[in-house]
Amino acid sequence: MEWKDLLDSGLAVAAFAAFLRMVFVDVAEMKARLARMEEGQREQTHLLNRLANATEALAYRQGVRLRKEKEA
Predict the structure, then answer these.
(1) Residue 9 to residues 6, 12, 38, 67: CA-CA distances in angstroms?
(2) 65 near 54, Cβ under 8 Å?
(3) What is the DSSP string of the chain?
(4) Which of 17, 41, 56, 59 could form a disulfide with 64 if both were Cys (CB 3.0 to 4.6 A apart)?
(5) Rounded CA separation 20/26 (Å)
(6) Comparing 8 with 47, which gets the higher pLDDT?
(7) How far apart are alpha carbons 71 and 21 in whole angstroms?
(8) Is-contact 59 66, C-beta < 8 A?
């Protein structure tokens, strides 16, 4: 092999390694972003449940039933 072939193969290996690093970094960032989105969704669900419970409690105090009672 000539030195040009060695240089070409070395550059190809370096480029492939850089590509793999870029892909794995992007995947890690996407996983972290997804985890943050899931945490935000859990927080929103929690707050929405609290709001629904508070609304139902206020309505109950005023004599209004928001939910139908199950028949036995």
Answers:
(1) 5, 5, 43, 71
(2) no
(3) --HHHHHHHHHHHHHHHHHHHHHHHHHHHHHHHHHHHHHHHHHHHHHHHHHHHHHHHHHHHTT---SPPPP-
(4) 59
(5) 10
(6) 47
(7) 61
(8) yes
Buried b (16+ CB within 10 A) or exposed e, 41-61: eeeeeeeeeeeeeeeeeeeee
The Cα 49–Cα 41 span in angstroms is 12
Q: pTM score, two decimals?
A: 0.59
Q: With a cut of 70, say whether residue 47 has pLDDT above it.
A: yes
Contacts of 60 (CB under 8 A, 6+ apart): 66
Question: What are the two backbone dihedrals, phi and then psi, of residue 62, each rounded to the nearest 5 degrees?
Answer: -90, 5
